[in-house]
Amino acid sequence: MTPLSWIVSRLRAGLAPVVAVAVAVAVTVALIAALPRVVADLAGRATSGAFATLSAREGDLMARWRGAPAATATTTDPGAAYLEAAEDLRQAQPRPLRDVLVPPQLLGELGFPLSVTPPASSGYHRLTFAVLVDATLEEHTRLVSGAWPRPPDAADPVTEAVVLHDAAERLGWVLGSEPLPGIRLAGTFRPTDPHDRRWEQVPRGVRYAELVDPNLGTELVSAVFVDRRALAVGVSGKRPQIIHTLWYGISADTESAGLDAEVLAGQLTATLARTHDLTTDGRLSIRLFSELGDVLDAVSVQQRTLTALVLAMAAGPVGLSILLVWLAAVGVRARRATVTALVRARGASPGQLRAWALTEGVALLLVGGLAGYAVVDAALPGPGRGAGVGSLSGTDALAAVAPTLLTVAGGILVWRLRQGVLRLLVGPLRTRRSLPGLLGVLRALRGSGGALPLIAVLLGVSVAVVGGTVSASLDATARDAAWGLNGAPVRIAGPRMTDDVVARIESVDGVASVARVARVADAVPLQLPEQTIHVGVWAADDHLLDAYRGSPVDPGLPPALFGSADGVAAVVGGLVPEGATGGRLGSVGQVRLLGHRDLLPGIATPDAWALVSSEAWASAGGEAPTATIALVAVADGARADEVASALRVQLDTAVVSTAEEQLRGRHVPASLAFARLATATGLATLVLMTGAILAADAVGAATRRDATARLRALGAPDRDIRLSVVWETAPGLLLAVASGIGLGIGAAALLLGWLDYGFITGARRARLALDPAWLAAVLGLVLVALAAVITTAARRAAREGEAP
Amino acid sequence: MTPTSTRPPSRDHAGPDIWCEDLVRIFTTEGAEVQALQGLNLVVEPGEVVALVGASGSGKSTLLGILSGLDRPTGGRARVAGHDLTAMRPRQRISFRRHSVGFIWQQTSQNLVPHLSAADNVMLPMMIAGRRDRAARAHDLLDMLGLADQSRRLPPELSGGQQQRVAIATALANAPDVLLADEPTGELDDENSAAVLEALRGVAQLTGTTVLIVTHDPTVSDHVERTVQIRDGRTSTEVVRRFDAAGRTEAWEEYTVIDRAGRIQLPKAHVEELGLRDRVRLRHGDGHVEVWPATRDPRHGAEEGS
Ligand SMILES: Nc1ncnc2c1ncn2[C@@H]1O[C@H](COP(=O)(O)OP(=O)(O)OP(=O)(O)O)[C@@H](O)[C@H]1O
Ligand SMILES: [Mg+2]
């Protein structure tokens, strides 16, 4: 027998509780190890989500410069040299910027476009072709017919070129012909991936355009692509000025997972601030420009918010699993109490006891910890390079710990409250002579064992509620924002809403009514009793009431606004002070003011505005330009998206949007992932909570044994013993459930108020919204779990009471 | 000390192995006070084997708890194996438990670690004390108690009597001066009880260990030379057995304790037999005092003494 064999035999003797400790440790470690990965994953989604919706103009790093062909020999290929230098520049960037940039591309536009007048049979009055060098054209297209163009010759007045197959076909061009002056058609191509974002930089590479002039007819606009060496020698024996565009696309793929937008933004700023040499002789130095920085700033806010939210919610499962470790350890200790007393009596010193326990603890932590880590490592990808939480601002950090602090503070309050409630219960139970109930409540009042389950329930319920509530609130606010932008189920902007256009809109199936909204005047003085303020005046017809009806942000305009009986009425908003009932509005004179609203959904109102009836405005002599916005109410049973597609066909130049589309646009990948995470966290928390209460009750069961034995000695049946356990545990736990829901909603409100959710909600402040289904689900699950726990405890008490 | 050789008790300290004076222990639970010991006096010399008997609740276990260094007296003084129990610091207390006392409780399961073999159980106190040659000494002790064959067995695989004998070996592991046993035979049948008591007396004699056995067992006096009766937290009477040269019981002598105020307590049996009540009549004899029922005149009485 050595100290080591002693420890091993102790561990082996009570394997089940020891395993419980190790498992609880594993769960804790797994949660803690998963945390940075989850954060990195969300951060990555935030980045890639933002990148994915970027247009090339917003995202790409670009440089532009002018130059004329300088060389005479066709052997020089400046395109290749530029690309190589640009690629070197990319390789010289620090990570993660380097990985975010895709290899450079180059476009040269040579001089002015070539224009010819085609035969009338073509249907066009004119053909206009830009002469382009797309340095990586062959990588992104497929030759349909002919061959790639041969390099131009400085002396040859004819240069070979390829054109978009569709254009060549439309015009009936044949290979080998010279359809444009100085250009011979060598081949035709099609893009391999027309949706590749690169084509935003080279739009003529995917489609030709038809420009319609009411007087002259239709003009076809396209491009011919010549060999890269034209950048050195020019085309058709000429040397025109060349506008070079060099760009690096942004990759939105998974490689950017876990990207810290703040780091990236810093690297980007440094790169944009410098000039870079593209040639070794220093004759060509470029400066890159990009709007990516603004995007990254927004992403970094999003990342910080998500990180704070994840940390706030993680407190639940992590706290509960630590509680489980502790309870399991207490359980092991309780089981060993007899043996511990024995070895103490035989002279074991506190130091020896500590050393043994420490050895065991370290072993269990190692085994459990490694197991937990291994599971996480296998299940979740490691945080990518450059990954990070970023630095949380003070507010973010505070928000992250707020729910935990709130729970702790709430726990103390709820404990007090519990004592009060129990005391209140004593009286009625006494008069009703319910002995088991009375005994149970008295036991709960005296014992302190109820604190741990109470905290477990409080933490579990509040975290489950926080996740769902934040998620629901963001959803609701996003919905508000979407409807705030769109105003009505369908919004049309662009064309002048003449009677004819409105008639066409109304002819579409499913359109119930069309409200025309016009900006009729700017900076009109509105004289109020106290002050004069300049307002933008908007005019609408009474269909606006229909359009707004059913919107979550319906401003509830007074119908009297559109009654033209006595003069002009107006609803004012924005900075116009509230309260006034009348004033003088510019040349229209006296107006009645019917109310004040912050915003008009679907209408980009200025800081201070007034909305009037277009009819009343016109009859009062106001200037009345044609409306450019129409808000469409959809008939019952009709679908907004179908109505919108039909409208798009009817009005090809109009911008038609639906509230649902706007909403989809706001559901960034990160917020969807967060919603899933909230659900998962909620469930995990509830499971851990159940485990923790069970464990806490098992540990505290010993204290109940005496009381149970006493009840049994008095001849109490099992039913009474169970009843007394129910009375002992249920009031406190139910109180904790109710308080947990309250605390959860409070914590959610804090999180909503303190963090910036602009990436989802736009300019709106996130408003607290409860999700009844979620709350009901949480409540249901918790009550089922508690019922199970209480039943188990009651059964155990009844069983133990039996044993002599 | 080798357990296999009989040795007269040799001690590092002077005086008795157990010495208690006016020992008081008061338990306070939920406001109520229980006087478990109310001024107990007891002296046990090195090598003595003493039985402590008394009704349930008379304070026997309380006394043993104090003597084994697990509990502290509320008042009075106690000295065990030269250690003053009322003035021990934590370090000394640990050393006292390791080296000076061994104990055996009534519940067989309380004496042994269930997941350790008999030999490992005996070695456990030695490991705690950091003693060398643990295996050899454990073997010797088990051998001495007739358990050499059982050394690899776990306690649940042993009979109650065997378990208590392993417990004796465990208690003796670090060669303590004093062995305390609280109803070691309480859970055993007569046969096993006798075997355990014999084993106790045997090893005590062999090793020179002082033994104090608490028991309900009326036959225990057959195995010990001195039986102390404890009543209401006080030692009351004592029976000392005298042996003749052949080792047979020659005579039983009965003693009672007289406190400093001169109060004595008479054995209950005598009180009831003679109907002693309220007042007794004393008669001073030649070098002794007689106690008479108040109603009888000692001058007409037939017998002497009481
Ligand atoms: N820890 C304690 N707390 C309160 N009272 C106690 C405690 N231990 C003992 N007592 C009380 O002290 C008195 C003496 O108890 P003790 O256990 O010493 O008696 P005993 O002589 O060993 O009895 P038994 O023969 O039944 O074992 C009893 O009245 C008992 O209730
Ligand atoms: Mg006892």
UniProtKB/TrEMBL annotation, chain A:
Membrane-related topology note: Multi-pass membrane protein
Native organism taxonomy: Bacteria, Bacillati, Actinomycetota, Actinomycetes, Propionibacteriales
Pfam family, one: FtsX
Domain ABC3 transporter permease C-terminal: 684-799
Sections of the chain in a coiled coil: none
InterPro entries (alphabetical): ABC3_permease_C (IPR003838), Macrolide_Exporter_MacB (IPR050250)
Top-level division of the source organism's lineage: Bacteria
Keyword annotations: Cell membrane, Membrane, Transmembrane, Transmembrane helix
Protein's name according to its UniProt entry: ABC3 transporter permease C-terminal domain-containing protein
Family: Belongs to the ABC-4 integral membrane protein family.
Compartment(s) of residence: Cell membrane
Gene Ontology CC terms: plasma membrane
GO molecular function, one term: transmembrane transporter activity
UniProtKB/TrEMBL annotation, chain B:
PROSITE patterns to which the protein is assigned, alphabetical: ABC_TRANSPORTER_1, ABC_TRANSPORTER_2, SPOVT_ABRB
Key words, A-Z: ATP-binding, Nucleotide-binding, Transport
Coiled-coil features, chain-numbered ranges: none
Gene Ontology CC terms, in alphabetical order: plasma membrane
Gene3D superfamilies xref list: P-loop containing nucleotide triphosphate hydrolases (3.40.50.300)
GO molecular function: ATP binding; ATP hydrolysis activity; DNA binding; transmembrane transporter activity
Pfam families, sorted: ABC_tran
Transmembrane regions: none
Domain of life: Bacteria
Cited InterPro entries: AAA+_ATPase, ABC_transporter-like_ATP-bd, ABC_transporter-like_CS, ABC_transpr_LolD-like, MacB-like_ATP-bd, P-loop_NTPase, SpoVT-AbrB_dom
PANTHER family assigned: ABC TRANSPORTER RELATED, IMPORT ATP-BINDING PROTEIN
Protein name in the entry: ABC transporter
